[in-house]
Structures are given as structure tokens and as C-alpha cells.
Write a structure and sequence with these properties.
Length: about 450
């Protein structure tokens, strides 16, 4: 089987899709029990030297013509190595250590035979900035893995996104004349994107300085993300570490993330997501959303974030929705999280807006059944330690707080939490006390206003 012609067709298809404005989600109708994926034990990723072994076939990209000198365009060699590995049983596509490979924007298309390993032991990188990007190729993506079932991306190597020239485009926030944001071309590539794929493992890798998101998973299921190091400067725009959308049955474990946006962002259509043992920051925290943009329908449920540290970040654990959306966020647990000098350690923001021009709207994503447990540490005194800004029309309900202890990082004055139309309880005394929560349930939530998922 040859994937070259298929790759060209798929590339054109995905490029057209990505030229459209991003949607905020797909409707999911489901009633599922909450379940957590078990966190796997830490394990070293195997490395291969390009030789054959009895149990697998290794496809070293150098054998297909890759130079690995950091300058030569090695795209065609990677495509040929992919086609060969994709057609083989128990195959490993090997990117050997000691070499740096420059690759143009590419789509690696499946389906492939089972148990494919994409072994990154060397360095891979895109062209250096927008002026080096081919004019006729979409600038919204770099490496895309499409319709893959059963693949492990792993190794001790480096994915270098070379993002600085993208971050400095005049269209980026504060990068124009006198710190303004200027009009003009602004598309920037996601480094690694998995699209409509399943049974994936991404482990042991280092990735830095993506032009935009570092990893993105769209329309995927059964995903394990383990032992990653993701780094970008704190002022790099839109460099989310891991973003998932319309993706379910996900485990994100034992990773260190610091960047200029969310460490992990959970978009519409996601459910059954377990995040554990993440060190996050500097960053914008761990976020559900934003949801409901452009009056869209968004459903997110069965999310657990636990045993993690968030430090020197603009937000801690956050739920953010736009006015005018519909759908629901429900059955979310934030447990055993340490905050170190975090602004907005706990925040629900149902008035999310990137400008000052957003109009008031009556519909909203319904937020309910959110548990905050054993969240302790210090907060940046520029904002209250807890902020529950719920919709005027549709209150947040069943917010539960237990063992919360948040103290100012500087000074002794403890700010009061903020609540707006937020219903819930303190199971234990919190520091500071959240006296602004309304007990019980609203007298009436108009059923037509609450668009359940």
C-alpha cells in the first residue's frame, strides 16, 4: 500500500478545514459513569540504533535519504520512511540521536498496521519562521497524524518548534507598533496534531517553543500522554501545552509544562479525562474551555485533575465560557492541587471575552456538579483567591468546596472570594471562607434555557 497520493488528497482536505474558523464543539449525548484511567508507572522509552531485531522492523529515516544536518529539507525521506513503516507489522520509524532533521509541514496518513512506533531520539524541527514556510501550504499545522489506530510516539529526543519568529508577528498581542496588536496574516502552526485517531500513546518526549499549541488532539479516543516536558517562554502567545477537543478516554500523567498559555486546555466534546501529577507553570493554568464561542453548543463531562502543582501562573484551575453558548460542563473534580503564587487559583468565568466589545447575552453553558477538594497554597493578591462568575440567566449549581486553604503570597490581608449567581456548599471551613455561595438550588431554572448534553 502506498500513502503518497492519499497524503496529498488528505493534506488538501485538512488545509481547507483549517482555513475555516475553529468550531467550539460537537454535540455529545451521553450519560456515563465517571471513570478514571489508571496512571501508568513511569518507564524509560526504548531507543533503537537503526538495526533490525527479531520483534520489530526499524525504518531509520537516514536509510531513506534524510541528512539530519538541521539545514537540508528531509521531508521526502520522512514520507518514504512513513509509507514503509505504515505497511509493516510491528514497525518502528526511527529518528536517530545525534542528528537534527528539518521537515516541512506534513500529514502522516493511516490507517497503518498495528503497533507502529514513531521513535524520536534525535531532533526534529520545522522551517525557521513564517518567511521560510512554503506559500501554498497551510500555516496552521506542522506535523499531522490522520486516521491512525494504535501508535506510540516516544523517545528521548527533542521536538523544537522554532516559534520565536511566529510569536513576534505584528498581529500577535502586544507585538505591533508601540505594543499594539496590528492587522495582518496571523496563522501559526500547531506543532503536533492528531486528528481522528485512536489508541495513541505519547511519552517521554521533550518539546519546546511551538509557534502555537504544542500538542493538539481532535476527534480522538483512547489517548495516553505520559512523562512529557513542554517548555515555551511565559510571554509566548497561544502556546498551550496540550489541547484536546472532541476527544474522550484520555489520561495525561507525570509531565512538566511551562508556557505562555494553558498547560492543558479541554475543549468542547471531551469526556472521561484524567489528569494527574502535572507540574504546571509559569502558564495560564489548567482550563476547561473556552466553550460556547459564537453561540455554539459545548458539552464537557467526567473530568478529573488531581495530585498536581500549579505555580507562578495567571490562573489555577479554570472553567471559562462565552456568553451566548449552550450545553453543559458537569461532573468535574479538582483534587489535591498545590498553588504557588497563582492569580485566580480557583475560577469560573462565564463572561470570557478577548476584547471589551462582547455583548451581554442570555443563553449560557450550564456549569454544575463541580468539586474543589484539598486545594492549598498561595495566591497572587492582584485577584481574589476564588472567583465564581456565573451566568446571569443560568446559575452555576452544585459547587462543592472542601479543605480549601489559600493565603496571600505577599502581605497578610486575605481577599474575600467573589461569587455571582453561584450555588453550592462548603463541606468544611475554607480559608478564606466562601460566604458568598448561595445554598441549595435555584428556585427555578427554565428548562428551555438549560440545554443538557
Amino acid at each position: 500500500m502506498t500513502h503518497s497520493l492519499a497524503s496529498v488528497a488528505v493534506f488538501t482536505f485538512l488545509s481547507l478545514i483549517l482555513l475555516l474558523p475553529p468550531t467550539d464543539g460537537r454535540t455529545h449525548s451521553h450519560h456515563m459513569k465517571k471513570k478514571n484511567l489508571p496512571a501508568p508507572a513511569n518507564a524509560a522509552s526504548p531507543s533503537y540504533n537503526g538495526g533490525d531485531a527479531d520483534s520489530f522492523s526499524a525504518f531509520d529515516v537516514r536509510k531513506f535519504g534524510a541528512k539530519g544536518d538541521g539545514v537540508t529539507d528531509d521531508t521526502d525521506a520522512f514520507k518514504m520512511a512513513w509509507d514503509a513503516a505504515c505497511d509493516a507489522e510491528l514497525a518502528t520509524l526511527l529518528i536517530p540521536r545525534g542528528h537534527a532533521f528539518m521537515i516541512q509541514s506534513t500529514i502522516f496518513t493511516g490507517p497503518c498496521k498495528a503497533n507502529l512506533v514513531f521513535q524520536i531520539d534525535g531532533t526534529i524541527m520545522p522551517p525557521d519562521g513564517p518567511n521560510s514556510w512554503p506559500q501554498r501550504i497551510s500555516k496552521r499545522q506542522w506535523l499531522v497524524f490522520y486516521r491512525i489506530n494504535g501508535m506510540s510516539m516516544q523517545g528521548g529526543g527533542l521536538i523544537d518548534g522554532r516559534g520565536e519568529k511566529w510569536w513576534n508577528l505584528p498581529c500577535k498581542p502586544h507585538k505591533g507598533i508601540n505594543g499594539t496588536t496590528m492587522p495582518g496574516p496571523c496563522d501559526s502552526p500547531v506543532a503536533i496534531r492528531f486528528f481522528m485517531s485512536s489508541n495513541l500513546t505519547v511519552q517521554g518526549l521533550k518539546i519546546k517553543d511551538s509557534p502555537q499549541f504544542h500538542f493538539r488532539f481532535d476527534g480522538c479516543r483512547n489517548v495516553i500522554i505520559e512523562s512529557l516536558s513542554i517548555k515555551a517562554p511565559s510571554q509566548s502567545p497561544n502556546t498551550d501545552g496540550i489541547h484536546i477537543e472532541n476527544t474522550n478516554n484520555v489520561g495525561i500523567y507525570n509531565s512538566m509544562i511551562s508556557n505562555g498559555d494553558d498547560c492543558v486546555s479541554i475543549g468542547a466534546g471531551c469526556y472521561d479525562v484524567n489528569i494527574r501529577n502535572i507540574t504546571c507553570g509559569p502558564s495560564h493554568g489548567i482550563s476547561i474551555g473556552s466553550l460556547g464561542v459564537r453561540n455554539s453548543h459545548a458539552c464537557v463531562s467526567n473530568i478529573t485533575v488531581m495530585d498536581s502543582v500549579i505555580k507562578h501562573s495567571d490562573n489555577g484551575v479554570r472553567i471559562k465560557t462565552w456568553q451566548g453558548g449552550s450545553g453543559a460542563v458537569s461532573h468535574v473534580t479538582f483534587d489535591n492541587i498545590h498553588m504557588d503564587t497563582v492569580r485566580n487559583p480557583i475560577i469560573i468565568d462565564q463572561y470570557y471575552c478577548l476584547t471589551k466589545a462582547c455583548t451581554n447575552q442570555t443563553s449560557a453553558v450550564y456549569v454544575s456538579d463541580i468539586l474543589y477538594s484539598n486545594i492549598k497554597g498561595t495566591y497572587d493578591v492582584r485577584s481574589p483567591p476564588m472567583h465564581f462568575g456565573c451566568s446571569d440567566a443560568i446559575p452555576c449549581t452544585n459547587l462543592t468546596l472542601s479543605e480549601i486553604e489559600l493565603l496571600p503570597a505577599q502581605g497578610e490581608y486575605v481577599l474575600n472570594p467573589f461569587c455571582w449567581n453561584a450555588y453550592g456548599i462548603m463541606q468544611t471551613l475554607t480559608i478564606p471562607p466562601v460566604m458568598c455561595l448561595v445554598e441549595g438550588m435555584p428556585e427555578k431554572i427554565i428548562q428551555t434555557d438549560v440545554d443538557h448534553c
